[in-house]
Amino acid sequence: MKSFLAALLAILVSVTARAADMPVKAPAALPPPYNWSGFYLGANVGGAWTSGSLNIPGNNLYGGLTEFIGGVQAGYNFQAGHLLFGVEGDFDGATFGHPVLPTPTLGSVSQNWIGTVAGRVGLVEDRWLFYTKLGGGWVRSNASLNFPGVAWQGSNTSSGWLAGVGIEYGFKANWTLKLEYDYIGLGQWTSPTVPPIPLNRDLQMVKLGANYKFESGLPDTVAPARTAHSAEHSEDEDLAKKSQNPIADLVSVPFQSNTNFNAGPFNRTQEVLNIQPVIPLRINADWNVISRTIMPVISQPSPFFNNNTNGIGDITQQFFFTPTHPGTLIWGVGPVFTVPSASDPILGTGKVLFGPTAVALVTPGHWVIGVLVNNQWSVGGNPLRPPVNAFLAQPFVNYNMAHGWYLTSSPVITANWLAAPGQQWTVPIGGGFGRIFKIGDQPVSANIAGYYNVVRPTGTPSWQLRAELSLLFPER
Q1: Which of 91, 107, 365, 388 is the most core-located residue (most Cβ within 10 A)?
Q2: CA dist 215 to 38, 177, 179, Å?
Q3: Which pTM does this prediction carry?
Q4: For the chain, which domains are there?
């Protein structure tokens, strides 16, 4: 987790010094700094995992839990200059029923909910808050054991200490976005059996959350600062180009449906709905950080039975550091990581993934042309699951036409470097069309496209139908 924490801390960048005022002009009035004080209420989603062991005599095939978590948090902040003091409590439901290998007959371990109460101490730089947490946590767990000589099941609510670190950003007057890592030291839960079986349950969590502040962070007369970005075009085409740019200064919430045909040995349909909020975070006048989250909701065909498993997959978070005044080439680089949040083992890797990501594009005339790439390696998670070394490249080409219409092609090329030769690459080709329009006063972008995998591993889908609806929130 050292690499993840280093990336988390790197996002908090010092604000650059402002240039001296010209002597012939009065200094421009600076907007008041963001006010973090007051009560707030919010929600979060993320992943949690343990790396403990279930020490069954002669069999240690448990490896730990990975699970999707989601819930609510509430708290109060008191700001004194650049210091912040606060208290926060949260409650998350946890969903993962993990069998003890090699077969479920040996038993299972699951968690139902996680609650924490902690004090927060932070450093504030206008809209940015870097904080640490210290407090306590409670976890409700279930376990069952069923192997020769031992048959037992039980439930337990245990408590432990909590330590965490996070970054929060005020992207609207009453709204903040946060990314947080927590560790709960729970110790062991020992079964009352002969022999006794100790279960290590120390828990790690990564959460992405949003908070509503009941007290505005800005005076009513102050509008959020904007960054100059695009040239003068028609309103529809300008908005279309921003929506097609992964690192544009534009808040958007895409809902992307990927329907993959002929998957698995029974030629079933796989459905992946990606919920992908994109939020620009301002560092200073010269730099932004673009936060891009991907939360998949999956219907996955079984490799053994003629049915599907439904649930949440592993959540991916990307951060792109990008200049606010780029030249002809628009670019961004940063970290990408994936937390093991799958609600069922078949829906995720069971691993914590981390790596670099980058995007580059140009926008000549009516075109938006570029590519997004990343590579992730497994750095934690269940030690019994296979390691991961995965590459992704997504070239995109868009041509914008009159009345908000556009043509689009954005195939997702992937490679599993650890797969057998001839089974590593998935390479699709195809494209489609879309349009920018409004539903009432809400700008949206909708498109539909089809792709055929000209190169693919055995048993993976051959065709994909992609449909996307994006809610766009341009500054007014």
Answers
A1: 107
A2: 6, 16, 21
A3: 0.83
A4: 2-9+36-213 (2.40.160.20), 235-473 (2.40.160.40)
